[in-house]
Amino acid sequence: MGIVHGGLDLNLDWVRIDRNKLDLLDRFLSLAGDSLSTFRYFRNRPTSAIENHIVTVLLLADDHPVAYGHLDPDDSKIWLGIAVVQSAKGLGYGKLMMNYLIRFATEHKIEKLTLSVDKPNSTAIRLYIKNGFVKVGETEKYEIYEWLNENRG
């Protein structure tokens, strides 16, 4: 869909990622740059780990992957993960991805989402709080946030 985003006329597309589209995920990871220092999900996992996700999605701007998101079930929690390509930070793509994942969780009656974030990542923390996430714990390096689906019933 062609929309104006951040003052730019861009063609934005959502692409659900499955095992047949791992090349697109690899492309995102190769472009992510310094973002991978705070988004470490694939550091110790193969990209095929997405097969266990409830949803994995990329946001493309003019056919270039600019944001990644997933909902990953693990034990009793569903973990939300988001990353934005370093060169595209500050353009609102993280907000778009967050909106997509929360809408998905709401539509699929997922009761709660959990995420962890590096303490120094104040930009991400503001985004999470603005979208209804509440801090529920912390470690020396991370803060843990949860979002509760008000429409889960």
From TrEMBL:
Superkingdom field: Bacteria
Classification via Pfam families: Acetyltransf_1 (PF00583)
CDD domains: NAT_SF
InterPro entries, alphabetized: Acyl_CoA_acyltransferase, GNAT_dom
Keywords: Transferase
Lineage of the organism: Bacteria, Pseudomonadati, Spirochaetota, Spirochaetia, Leptospirales
Gene Ontology MF annotations: acyltransferase activity, transferring groups other than amino-acyl groups
Organism this protein belongs to: Leptospira gomenensis
N-acetyltransferase domain ranges (all copies): 15-151
Gene3D superfamilies according to UniProt: 3.40.630.30
Name listed for the protein in its UniProt record: GNAT family N-acetyltransferase
